[in-house]
Amino acid sequence: MKKISEKYHLDYFILFILLCVLGIVLIINAIMHPRPQNIMLVLIDGIHIFLNGRWMNKAKYVSPYDYDKEVKAWKKQKREAKKRGEIFEYPRPAKPKKMAERFLPLFFATLFFGYIAYVSCAFINILFPARMSYEYKSDIAKFKENNFDAYYFFPDEIPKDAENIEWIVLPSFMQGSGTEVLIFGAPGEYIQEVIAAYSQDAQICGIEEDMSFKIYYDETRLEKLTIYKIYDNDDRNHVHMWGFFVDDGISRIGFFSQ
Questions:
Q1: String of b and e for 18-54 (b: at least 16 CB within 10 Å)?
Q2: Does residue 255 sit in helix, strand or coil?
Q3: pLDDT value, residue 7
Q4: Helix (H) or strand (E) holding 136
């Protein structure tokens, strides 16, 4: 039985194993965080695994010992042709490239195309704003770290007894403002605690044209919402607004920042 190093180019084999391991990690990440760019990375990695597998099987392995034998045979044929007065047209056997000369370009090509795919598909996130509820805790921690004032009233984590949870993260695109909305059903006691804690910082109002969270809520109940607007920069061209709203009729509460 041939050794792996004798059957395949070792650099192709190493890259193949690395891509397979990376593929497993990317698949787990895409399942846990189903974003367009994460799914695209899995597809790109799968393509590279397929191509590398074909290259690995098709590439002729030439060991240093075999190369020396080919060179000696080539020299012998050249001498014999010279004795016969013939022109020897066959070129000298190409020296096998070192592992790094093949492995590094393939490795960096994988990184480059993966990065391009990731950045390109990140823009598609605006079409898929919904996120998993278990992502909320880590997401909101990052948002609060970057801009505490706009998210301080968001809960650090979703209550255990919350129902029908919706966690929306719509990234800003060009001049459009980004929006984060957390909506869930909660006991009346919880809703009253939130109102008591933050209503003094807020202005009570009805639904407004510039409130982007309304597209993620039942339009038949928008007029029934009590909205506690904590901040509004009053700039209709570049809206910055945050607060929370309560739907007493069905005991739902929502937090928004845009």
A1: bbeebbeebbeebeeeebbbbbbbbebbeebbeebee
A2: strand
A3: 46
A4: helix 136-146
51-56, Cβ contacts within 8 angstroms, sequence gap of 24 or more? 52/12, 52/15, 52/16, 52/19, 52/106, 53/16, 55/12, 56/8, 56/9, 56/12, 56/13, 56/16
3-state secondary structure of 3: coil
Q: Which two tokens stand for residue 84?
A: 């016969």
Q: Specify burial of residue 205 (Cβ count, 10 A radius: 0-12, 13-18, 19+).
A: middle
The model's pLDDT over 100-147, given as tens digits with 9 standing for 90+, comes to 566 667 777 777 877 777 777 766 666 667 788 888 998 999 999 988
Separation CA 34–CA 104 (nearest Å): 30
CA–CA separation, 19 vs 43, rounded Å?
12
60 versus 161: which is more confidently predicted? 161
